[in-house]
Amino acid sequence: MALNEQLADHLAQFQTAPFLFVGSGMSRRYLGLESWEALLEKFSALTDLPYAYYRSQAESDLASAASLMAKNFSTKWWSEDSYANSRKKYENLCTSERSPLKIEICRYLTEEVSKRKVPAALSDEISALRNVVVDGIITTNWDSFIESIFPDFRAYVGQDQLLFGSPQGIAEIYKIHGSSNEPNSLVLTKEDYSEFERKNPYLAAKLLTTFIEHPVIFMGYSLSDKNILSIIGAITGCLNNSTVKKLQDRLIFVEWDGTSNSDSMVSSVINQGGVQIPVKQITTSGFVPIYKAMSEVQRRFPAQVLRRLKDQVYDLVLNNDPKGKLYVKDINDTTPNDDIDVVFGVGAIKTLQERGYVGLRRDDLMRDIVFDDGELNAEQVLTKSMEGFLQGSVKFVPIFKYLREAKRIDGKGGVKTSGLPKKVEFHVKRHDQAFFHPPLQAYRNKFNSKGSYKKGIAYIESKLGVDWVINIACFLNKECVDCGELREFLQRNFHYLEQPATRSAMARLICFYDWICYGPDVE
Predict the structure, then answer these.
(1) InterPro entries per the record (predicted)?
(2) Three-state SS at 61
(3) pLDDT for res 320
(4) Structure letter (DSSP) for residue 348
(5) Confidence bin at 286 (pLDDT 50/70/90)
(6) What is the pLDDT of residues 175-189, one digit of tens each?
């Protein structure tokens, strides 16, 4: 039996489409991009010392070698004229001595992906790859090659976005080691890997469902890749022995062998932490049979359509509210709309839409302000939801994004509050810089003594740390706030909204961002 038929039959036994787990071998095959070590060797040429020095000092540990190189390169980047343009453009992204090296690596990868072409000999493979049926992609690659192949998939960058960004598990790309679009997200150095390992149990728990419910096809990795083995080990560590055996048909490793005269698919075992993990191992001299088999997976709707459908009902699953009612309404049903909370139906739903905004939470608005992915009707938020948030002593509720989207902020900075509840109208009028000043005198004194009120977010984070930004950035002069920089900080640290110790301060900072970047003074 041909390999494509063998793999297609194997995938047909599952009720779900596969996930791809993509490594650097894919970018190397199609674009000729360097491996991690080759990339370090290339960038060592920008320092005063050869790569052999860094590797020997790090005792062949690549992450430690990267740490040494980053420290050396940081001094050159900040002082040499050849990096003047780069400093001018990216200095606000520098949060540690590791940042300059990450910035230049990202610049290089972005430029190379944009100008390199897939070899003509592999054009059939790329065409076949574009047609595969997958529910999602996990990758440790930094470059954007895989996004160019699946442009309709939504990318989640780093562990934090995957953990706290409400992924739906379909038509998504999980860039767990960071992205060249966000330099500080790169998992590059020893310090980065230590932080990655610290959060690895949470990542493993998040990916566990994927590994249990889907076949996972690994491409661009070796069976001996220690980073992949570590991730698989963390995931299987959540399972007992009998459950681990069920992964046997789900974990599929594809290895390229240009010298092979025949393709093969056999059962194999990988050992991680003393646990024997059964896998399927495919050896092939070309990937067209793999992609062809994956394109034959049956599904009624494209992945991106299914993701949008899932996204719309996510709040129902997230809240799991026993008081809520899921109602399947017949087209001719006369059940009163007031008796329905959630509707699945066919046809116009305008008469039913308004009730959904009553059930919004303040955290839903916070997330929408930071990630701009809530797709909320601004007027409904203002008239149906906002008043419910402004109860008791609640002070920080974002509003200006919705005022602007509802076209209630005119060109002269005036706010049209007609038709809004009185509490909402009052909430709009009480905003000024003093409204956001935190009551922490110790923070305030140290902040003022350092003159940090004249600096930006990246400066405060690099000198004082994340905690200081969360608690004190509201003291910044408005002209010192870069909206893109603050948004990036909030996205990267959004999980602090979930922690009791920082919840209030984080809510205040998000509302400060809402006022600064969407308020009446914004041109």
Answers:
(1) UCP014677 (IPR011202)
(2) coil
(3) 46
(4) -
(5) very high
(6) 999 999 999 999 999
Residues 6+ apart with CB under 8 A from 190: 61, 63, 64, 66, 67
How many CB atoms within 10 Å of residue 407?
A: 10
Dist CA 359 CA 353 (whole Å)? 12
Q: Pick 109 or 394 by higher pLDDT.
A: 109
Q: What is the pLDDT of residues 123-142, one digit of tens each?
A: 999 999 999 999 999 999 99
Q: Which amino acid is at 57?
A: Q
Phi and psi (nearest 5°) for 260?
A: -75, 135
* pLDDT tens-digit series, residues 444-474: 555 555 555 557 888 888 888 888 888 888 8
On whether the CB atoms of residues 31 and 118 are closer than 8 A, the answer is yes
Q: What's the whole-number mean pLDDT along residues 202-231?
A: 88
Hey, how many other C-beta atoms are within 10 angstroms of the C-beta on 89?
A: 11
Determine which of 220-229, 311-320, 475-484 has the lowest per-residue pLDDT on average: 311-320
Q: Which amino acid is at 389?
A: F
Report whether 141 contacts 33 (CB < 8 A): no
Q: Under a CB-based contact definition with an 8 Å cutoff, are residues 19 and 216 in contact? A: yes
Task: Give CA 93 to chain center in angstroms.
Answer: 18
Q: Whole-angstrom Cα distance, residue 370 to residue 364?
A: 10
Asked if 225 contacts 195 with a C-beta cutoff of 8 angstroms, the reply is no
Scanning the structure block, which residue is given the tokens 């706030």?
481
Q: Give dist(CA 146, CA 303) in Å, integer.
A: 16
Phi and psi (nearest 5°) for 281?
-120, 125
- Give the pLDDT confidence of 232-254 residue by residue, as tens digits: 888 888 777 777 777 878 999 99
The per-residue pLDDT for 451 is: 53
24: CB partners within 8 A, 6+ apart: 33, 35, 36, 140, 141, 220
Integer Cα distance of 134 and 322 in angstroms: 33
How far apart CA 263 and CA 247 sit, in angstroms, is 23
* Residue carrying structure tokens 């009791």: 500
* Phi, psi at 17, each rounded to 5°: -75, 155
Say how many residues make up the chain: 523
The yes-or-no verdict on residue 321 having pLDDT over 50 is no
Task: Name all domains of the chain by residue range, CATH numbers in brackets.
Answer: 3-31+120-295 (3.40.50), 36-115 (no CATH), 311-354 (no CATH), 362-518 (no CATH)
CA distances from 126 to 7, 31, 146 (A): 19, 11, 11
* H or E segment to which residue 244 belongs: helix 241-245
The model's pTM is 0.62
